[in-house]
Write a structure and sequence with these properties.
The complex is a heterodimer of chains A (about 250) and B (about 475). With about 250 residues, chain A is an alpha/beta fold. Chain A is about 35% helix and about 30% strand. Chain A has eight helices and ten strands. Chain A has helices spanning about 55-65, 85-95, 115-125, 130-140, 155-170, 185-205, 215-220, 240-250; strands at about 15-25, 30-40, 45-50, 70-75, 80, 100, 175-180, 205-210, 225-230, 230-240. Chain B has two domains: about 5-55 and about 325-465, no CATH class; about 60-320, no CATH class. Classes of the chains: A alpha/beta (about 250), B alpha+beta (about 475). The complex binds adenosine-5'-triphosphate and magnesium ion.
Chain lengths: ~250, ~475
């Protein structure tokens, strides 16, 4: 679509991390989960964070999401330095600016899909009538309109992740942060989810940061790959496969 | 989050772990119930006691006497008081002055005298006292046979049961109080009594009592230099009532066994003991009283009225001090009962804290999710508060109902017992509306207080940690 990330390579950075550190103190030893990471993500870009287990991918993502605070360094998202925000402001930032999906879906088991999707709108104090129609619309978009009143336990993994996507997008965030969203899914269902994420990136111009350890998946969907090891950034390169895919899709239109 | 959403989420969360939350709510109800039960017992007993005491007419009455009378007995004590010449006489003008004081319902002279009453031509010597019509509402005449005076001037008497026995020639049974007043009254009601009494009559200024044809005065009365004469008179009365009243009791005029209407008694101008002493100072024809009974609107005003009358230079007496210590006793009783009731609520308090802390542990992940999708610390805190508050309100309502039911059962049981002991039933259990409102509100506030710590803990939960593990 018009404002797809790769069509505006020089747009302002959506995310700017500078010497970002997150250290955990475990008694005498200090675990450097994130250790001086500097990176930039442009608005509308689709970036993948790659690295082996324990390399600090989730830690970086949580810092960008405002779920955690850096030990040192800064994360600036759309000109807001997250390190300087109060807890209250950080909650608002998560509510308005960020949508998250997780490997383990993280739907609330006691609530139906509709209620789960609606929950962020309750925190945003959107009135009930509007909430109902927006939740229905969002679930329809991910193909779950017939499962609205089911609880998560009654759904397959792929369906749950689709519902989680619907919830992540319900407040129209600028950032979609996905932590191994396909980790618990078979490859076919995983592809389905990844295609949806790409659609959101392209159609809504949403900036996407995808955490994964599957290089092939990252290359297929992301425009840029960032590599982490032991909390440090060890590589930042454009995706070779992505261009081709984008190109072929573009040619199809 | 908006309040309706908050309430809805709280209720649905409570329903999720129904058993645990129901048990906690029952705990609160039991606490509230015991609090309500204890307090309503205290309130009920107090109401019962004050109903009884108020009805006795003792606690809103001030007895006024002249200091001149007392001086004869307590010369030393009164030495610092006003000189005999300054102290005032308790006369009709004073009575009216007192009656017009604020918060005073009525002030009536205490008229009593010993005289002879003839019944079927046999003389009986006894104390006679006058009663205002307001006396019939006191409990002294609760078990009155026949009726009270038809008017304040009717030539009617109410007699006391021992006098009735005397008239009928029965010897009063000592020991058990089993006199059947109804049986005593039956032959006497409507019968006639003739009272012979000495009337005090103002003499014409110039006339000498010696020349008075009806004069019956003794020589020492004459020597007092009075400008009045004493005339012997007779009056017929109809017996309209027989009172089941202990003549030695504080209730009703002490020791009198025959009662007359007040206005009538006043009009008789019966010679009274004070007449002898005050006569030299009594201005003109004004009646002088040995004591005046003052009825005050309520026990709360007794002190003020007493003080005001003392300032006028009279002695006063009331049983207020006794009532004050009774009130104090009930305050202490209420506090103790309240403490016992609150103990149960304290246990419920710990129950709420426990339940909510358990809920936090159980719902760690859920809290993490809510924070990840944008819930603020305040949202999480309010949600836990709402859950605690909902349990509190529900527990409070159920508890009040339970406490009320317990009270009814105890009331019923006690009344069955009282009936068996042939006492009249009593309503000593009272759950006033303010107590219902107070109990529910108190339960709500206690539950919120119990939610304080868990809610704070839930709000501070680190979402990253909460979401980290399955
Ligand atoms: N709360 C914590 N306390 C101590 N160490 C932590 C904590 N959270 C993360 N770590 C450590 O920080 C490092 C980075 O963890 P992180 O979860 O970011 O890795 P990851 O790249 O997401 O790994 P995975 O692919 O397995 O999810 C790990 O060594 C982890 O043990
Ligand atoms: Mg991870």
């Amino acid at each position: 679509m018009s404002n797809a990330g790769n069509s505006q390579p020089n747009s302002a950075p959506a995310i700017h991390a500078e010497q970002l550190c997150r250290h955990y103190r475990m008694g005498e030893t200090v675990i450097r989960a994130v250790d001086g990471v500097t990176l930039e993500v442009r608005a509308g870009e689709f970036v993948a964070l790659l690295g082996s287990s324990g390399s600090g991918k989730s830690s970086v993502l949580n810092l960008i999401a405002g779920l955690d605070r850096p030990t040192s360094g800064s994360v600036i998202v759309h000109d807001r330095n997250l390190a300087r925000l109060s807890r209250e402001e950080l909650a608002r930032y998560r509510l308005r600016t960020v949508g998250m999906v997780f490997q383990s879906f993280n739907l609330i088991p006691s609530m139906t899909l509709a209620e789960n999707v609606e929950l962020p709108m309750r925190f945003a104090e959107i009135e009930r009538g509007k909430r109902d129609s927006l939740a229905r619309e969002a679930l329809t978009r991910v193909g779950l309109q017939s499962r609205m009143n089911h609880r998560p336990s009654e759904l397959s993994g792929g369906e749950q992740q689709r519902a989680a996507l619907a919830r992540a997008l319900i407040n129209r965030p600028e950032l979609l942060l996905a932590d191994e969203p396909t980790g618990n899914l078979d490859s076919h269902t995983g592809t389905e989810i990844m295609n949806m994420i790409r659609e959101f990136n392209r159609q809504l111009g949403m900036t996407v940061v995808l955490v994964t350890h599957e290089r092939a998946l990252a290359e297929h969907y992301a425009q840029r790959l960032i590599f982490l090891a032991d909390g440090k950034l060890i590589g930042d390169e454009a995706s070779s496969a992505f261009v081709a895919t984008a190109g072929t899709e573009r040619e199809r239109r | 989050m908006k309040l309706p959403d908050l309430a809805e989420l709280a209720v649905r969360n409570l329903r999720e772990s129904l058993l645990r939350n129901s048990l906690t709510t029952i705990g609160i109800s039991v606490g509230v119930a015991s609090l309500v039960a204890m307090l309503s017992l205290g309130i009920g007993l107090q109401q019962l006691a004050s109903r009884r005491l108020m009805k006795s007419g003792l606690f809103d009455t001030v007895v006024v006497t002249s200091r001149r009378d007392l001086r004869n007995f307590n010369r030393d004590q009164e030495a610092g008081g006003p000189a005999p010449g300054e102290s005032r006489i308790l006369d009709e003008a004073t009575r009216q002055e007192i009656e017009h004081m604020p918060n005073v319902l009525e002030a009536y002279p205490d008229i009593r005298f010993i005289t002879e009453l003839r019944y079927e031509d046999k003389p009986h010597l006894t104390m006679v006292a006058a009663l205002p019509s307001s006396a019939q509402s006191t409990d002294a005449f609760d078990a009155l046979q026949g009726h009270f005076f038809s008017s304040e001037t009717a030539p009617e008497v109410v007699i006391q049961k021992t006098f009735a026995e005397e008239l009928l020639g029965k010897t009063p049974k000592s020991g058990l109080d089993e006199t059947n007043v109804a049986a005593l009254a039956a032959p006497l009601l409507g019968k006639e009594l003739t009272m012979r009494y000495a009337q005090r009559e103002a003499a014409p200024p110039a006339a000498s009592y010696v020349g008075s044809d009806k004069a019956n005065a003794s020589s020492d009365q004459g020597l007092a230099g009075a400008a009045y004469s004493v005339v012997s008179r007779e009056l017929k009365f109809k017996i309209v009532g027989v009172a089941d009243l202990d003549p030695e009791s504080m209730r009703g005029p002490t020791r009198a066994r025959v009662f007359l209407p007040l206005k009538l008694a006043e009009s008789l101008h019966v010679m009274q003991p004070t007449d002898l002493r005050e006569v030299s100072r009594a201005p003109g024809d004004q009646p002088v009283y040995s004591s005046v009974n003052v009825r005050v609107k309520g026990p709360g005003q007794v002190q003020a009225v007493e003080d005001a009358i003392k300032k006028m230079g009279f002695n006063t007496f009331s049983i207020l001090d006794a009532s004050r210590s009774i009130q104090q006793f009930f305050k202490v009783l209420d506090v103790f009962l309240g403490i016992f009731g609150s103990l149960a609520l304290a246990v419920a308090f710990i129950g709420i804290v426990n339940t909510l802390v358990m809920a936090i542990l159980e719902r760690r992940r859920e809290i993490g999710i809510m924070k990840a999708i944008g819930a603020s610390d305040g949202d999480v805190k309010r949600l836990f508060f709402a859950e605690a508050g909902a349990m509190g309100i529900l527990g409070g309502i159920v508890g009040v109902a339970l406490g009320w039911a317990i009270g009814q059962v105890i009331n019923l049981g006690t009344n069955v017992y009282l009936k068996r002991q042939s006492f009249p039933p009593e309503h000593f259990w009272s759950v006033p509306w303010w107590l219902v409102a107070f109990a529910v509100l108190f339960s709500f506030l206690v539950s919120l207080a119990a939610g304080l710590y868990p809610a704070g803990r839930a709000a501070r939960l680190d979402p990253v940690q909460a979401l980290r593990y399955e």
